[in-house]
Amino acid sequence: MYQLEKVTRVFDQRFSLMVDSLRVNKGDRLVLVGPSGSGKSTLLRLLNFLEPPTHGSITFEGVSYSREKMPPLEVTRRITTVFQSPLLLGMSVLENVCWGLKLRKIADPEEKSIAALALVGMASFAKKNVRSLSGGEAQRVALARAIVLSTDVLLLDEPTANLDPYNVSLIESIVKKLNEEKGTTILMVTHNVFQAHRLGTHAALILDGRIVEHGSVEKFFTKPEDTRTSAFTRGEMVY
Amino acid sequence: MTNDFAQIVTLTFYVSGSALLISALIGIPLGAWWGFHPFRGRKMTTALLYTGMGLPPVVVGLFVYLMLSRSGPVGGLNSPFLPRLFTPGAMILAQVIIAFPVVAGLTMAAVMGVSQAMRWQIMALGADRAQTIRAVLWEARRGVVLALVAGFGAIISEVGAVMLVGGNIAGKTRVLTTAIVLETRQGNFLFALQLGIALLIIAFIINFAVVLIQEKDGQG
C-alpha cells in the first residue's frame, strides 16, 4: 500500500524525520512507538499527504509522490487521520460526522453518520453541539467521523491518549473490527507498549526521526534486533 | 423635524451599511487569504493593516477630498465609476477606506487563530483548498463577526471623513454624526441629543443582535 524511499522532512533547517525505507502492506495494523518529538506524527502527516516530504518519495498504491508531485484529491480522500485532540468543527455532532461525506457528495450522509455514531455509542448525542461533549465523547465522535468515510487507510495519532479504560477498550475494539472486517489499513501512533502489543500486526520504533526497527509485532516484542527496541519494549528509558 | 430625523437616520444606514458591505466583500476574502497563506511580506502587510485600523477619519476624508476634487488626480477624470464630492458615494468611499483595514485585519487575525492542527484535520477529512478555506473561515466566524462589528463601529461613529467629503448638506449628505455637530453648534441641543441617542440605540441594537447570534451559535 505504502512504500517510502529516502523520505525526509526538514523543519527550520534541521531534520524532523528521515526514513530510509518503510513498507506498509494493505490490511496491516502498524503501530508506531517512540518518545514524544521523535517524528511519529510527522510521519502520519506525510502518509496522509497533509505535508509534502522535503526529499524522497512516497509510493501509494503503486504511484510515486514527492514534493514536486503531490497526489490528487481522489487519492488523498482514500486516507484519513484521527488526531490526539479530537479537533471537531464548531457545529453539531451529526454535522461533524456528515461533513466528510458531504464533501464527497455521498448519498444519505445522515443515515450513514447515525450508523457510525451508533458504532461508537454516540447516536443519542447526534443533535448536540460538540462543545457540550467530554474528552472521551469527543474522541469517539472524531473516530466516527473518520470511519464513516470508509477510507482504505486510517491513521490514528494517539487516539486513546487521555482516555479512560472503557473508552480505550471501545476504540481499540472498533479499530480492530474495522481492520478485520473491512480490510482497512491502520497506522497508529501510541506511547503505550501494551496497546501496541494488543493492537498491532506490525510495529515500528522511531527515535530521533529515524525508524530504528520495523517488523511483525511478535518479532518486535519477542526477538527485537536492536537493543534500543528491546529496552523500549521492556519499558526502559531509551531517549 | 420628524422628516429630517428619518432622512438622516436612513442616509446614515445607507452610507455606513453600504461601506460595511463593500468592506466585507473585499476585506473578508482578502483577510482570509492573507491569514491562510504564509507569503513573503505578510509581516509588512499585517503592520500596514494594523496601522490602517488607527487611521484618523479626518485624514482619510482629506485624502478622499483631494483625490476626488476637480483638480485632484482622480476627480479630474470625470469617470462615471468614481463618486463625486459632496455625494453619498464619496462618503461611502471614505468609509470603505476606514472600515476595510479593520475588517481585513481582524479577519486575518481570526483565521490565523485557527490552529494548524485544525487545518490538517479539515484537509484529512477530504477538503480541497477552497473547502479548507471555507471551513477555516467557519471556525473563525466569531472573529469575523467581531471584525464586522468593529468595522461598523468605526464608520457609524466617525464624523471627520463624512463631513469633509459629504459637506453635511441637508437632505443630501447629512448623517447622524454630522447632524449632531451642526445642531450642537446651532444651539439645538435637544435635537442634537435625540440624534445622539438614536446613534447609540442603533449601535446597541446591532451589537445586541450580534451577541444573541453568537450565544445561539454557542448553544447550537
Query: What is the helix content of chain B?
Result: over 70%
Question: Can you summarize the main beta sheet of chain A?
Answer: 6 strands, mixed
Order of helices and strands of chain B: HHHHHHHHHH
Count of β-strands of chain A: 10
A few lines on this structure:
The complex is a heterodimer of chains A (239) and B (220). By secondary structure, chain A is α/β, with parallel strands linked by helices.
Give an account of the 3D structure.
- The complex is a heterodimer of chains A (239) and B (220).
- Chain A has 239 residues and is of the alpha/beta class.
- In chain A, the strands form 2 sheets. In chain A, strands 6-7-8-3-9-10 form a 6-stranded mixed sheet, with helices on both faces. In chain A, strands 2-1-4-5 form a 4-stranded antiparallel sheet, with helices on one face.
- The radius of gyration of chain A is 18 Å and the shape is globular.
- Chain A has helices at residues 40-47, 73-76, 93-103, 109-119, 135-147, 165-182, 193-199, 217-222, 227-233, and strands at 2-11, 14-24, 29-33, 55-60, 63-65, 79-82, 153-157, 185-189, 202-207, 210-216.
- In chain A, helix 3 (93-103) crosses helix 4 (109-119), helix 3 (93-103) runs parallel beside helix 5 (135-147) and helix 4 (109-119) packs across helix 5.
- The mean pLDDT of chain A is 92.
- Helices cover 36% and strands 26% of the residues of chain A.
- Helices cover 76% and strands 0% of the residues of chain B.
- Chain B is globular, with a radius of gyration of 20 Å.
- In chain B, helix 3 (57-68) runs parallel beside helix 8 (160-166), helix 4 (88-112) packs antiparallel against helix 8 and helix 5 (116-124) packs across helix 6 (129-139).
- The model of chain B has no long low-confidence stretch (mean pLDDT 92).
- Chain B is mostly helical and 220 residues long.
- At the A-B interface, strand 6 and helix 3 of A face helix 5, helix 6 and helix 10 of B.
